[in-house]
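Much of our argument rests on the idea that a fold can be written as discrete symbols. Part of our work consisted of pairing the sequence of a single chain with a tokenised description of its backbone. No coordinates are needed to read the tokens, only the vocabulary itself. The record that follows shows the chain in one-letter code together with its fold in token form.
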Amino acid sequence: MAQAPLEERARRIRRTIVRLAATSTGCHLGGSLSMVDVLVALLGRVMHVDPSAPRAEVRDHLILSKGHAAAGLYAALAEFGFIDVEELVRGYNAEGSHFTGHVSAKVPGVDFPTGSLGHGLGLGVGLALGHRMRQRPNRVYVLCGDGEMGEGSNWEAIQVAAHHRLSNLTIIVDRNGGQNDGPTEAILSQKALGERLRAFGMQTAEVDGHDVNALCAALEAPSDGPRALVANTQKGAGVPMLRGKGPHYAVFSADHLKRALASLGEVTP
């Protein structure tokens, strides 16, 4: 059976995310939706990883440093065959479930539990350096939030990556302009993020974070050192009633869910 186009797979992932928002605990909705197209580009085209052997020794790694957006990553892993989507919806954030509200390494396709912001990139740099020392072809992709780039630990990790010229490392920043406490620009401006990444030695590009083809092209571009991609996105992307608004966290009512699914082309009773 032919695979669905990546844009359709992104739409299905967003349907799963809004279903997770309608569970009893809800989810970090805005930032989960904003990064969907990045995840589709990575898991659908760029990364070398087998869903049937997600812990194979030779594989690419995806580290979600903004681990509070677990709903988005879990939904993408379900779409690409790592986990069962109905098991995810039933178990999300439930007592005793490994589908926790911040990503869990018990979930196939997840290497590290994250969510304490500023830690994922350091893990990724160490992993990339270790693979290079062992002369392995594994590549490492770290997806960060823009608010998270205010953490000093990230810039320490970036310096190490640049010093060692880790060409097997790619950082993607989900530049959705919002964080828990409000607009990123009002809290700690990231307006010069691309320039700062370049100044720290990263080979940097900026791209529309909702254009899957542009994302794939940028992610697959040749590089002789560590790369950074600033993906300009919108919170709530793909769901018209939410786009550009967020919210950061939401617990959907049945009516909210019905409206959100309808806007994604799914008609519910």
Remarks:
- The beta strands are 61-64, 140-145, 169-175, 178-179, 182-183, 203-208, 227-232.
- DSSP finds eleven helices and seven strands in the chain.
- The CA atoms of residues 10 and 127 lie 28 Å apart.
